[in-house]
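Something for you to look into today, if you have time. Just paste the record in under my message, thanks.
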Amino acid sequence: MSFSHPVLACLLAGSVAALAPSVQADDPLPLAPVKSAAAEDGERVDPMRPTRLTAAERDKLYEQAGRDAERLEQQAIQLRRLTKLLRPTVVHIGATKPLSRPRNGRVTQEEAGSGVIATVADRTVVITNRHVVHRADLDDIAIRLDDGRELRPVRSWSDAATDIAVLQIKAPDLQPARLAGGDSVQIGDTVLAIGSPFGLAHSITLGIVSAKGRRDLELGEGTVKFQDFIQTDAAINPGNSGGPLVNLRGEVVGLNTAIASNSGGSEGIGFAIPISMVMFVARQLVENGSVARAYLGVSLDKDFRQQAAHRLGMVRSIGARVESLIRNSPADAAGIRPDDVILEYDGTPVEDDDHLLSLVSTTPVDATIELVIFRDRQRLTLRMPVAARKDFENAAK
């Protein structure tokens, strides 16, 4: 009998030898016992032993970690509370749309997105992005609630210029979300994004507001004209479109709309429409069926830079420079001139031409506003009523 494992061979040979009454001449010689290295070299030493924690030290650290965890767990408790509050207010939307160009025998495509339940003009609606439901018939739009119910909208409205859509729904026990007032959200605020990324309904991600006032994004077919996006690093992926961006009070501060990505997935740069713009559009859609926007009647310099600012006597380029005016427009009647720089619009400092366009777009058409302008190296204040954009756009056609 032979063994390939030396330790195993040693043990078995010793057992056989103990049973034999004597050693015969033709028997194999018994193996010498294996000596312990520790017996020759002394007991081995752990060189790291002085740096290791004792049992008492470990117990003390566990106690400290527990106390610190209590403080951190307060945030986790708040997030769990928000999840319980918000999940019933968020819906998954599936829409079947006709393909503009049928391919491979297919004439329709499936679109998935998200939405948030809200009360607008005494109606219960789902607010979402227009691109989620655009070109889909009402019967081809499925709204799935958190409790598993599936509804069809009874009516829909949309606004291409902001990518906002509103779907009226009717069902018992619907839970509208609470909306934040104004634009109170600030850079650095903690926010949650809720929606259906990749069809995974009612997923929640956490992040912060990383920037505000993003207004030069190239979205879709370029139809999103009025932009004033909140930027967040809360993970937003395909399917999140139309879902809410929420603050730590459980209030909706924005409508998740787009991502900047090279891979098609979240890279920490997502964009949401501010709730003030969302509600300005949603109320008018529900009440009037369309959105009426204010109009000043100025053409603005999109390339207002340092050189032009210095020519006008300004230290730096800020605000929106007027290039020309539309005859008989509100700005013309108020006495605004070419080369005037609009510094403030109704109390809000104007950053650039896109910012001014955004401010005007969310002004009621019957409002009278105050402008602060820079002219001849001085600040001047003008008051003027605005007009309805559609009146001038129709006249120009």
Summary: The radius of gyration is 35 Å. Residues 1-25 have pLDDT under 50 and may be disordered. The first strand starts at residue 90 and ends at 103. Residues 87-168 form a domain with the Thrombin, subunit H fold (CATH 2.40.10.10).
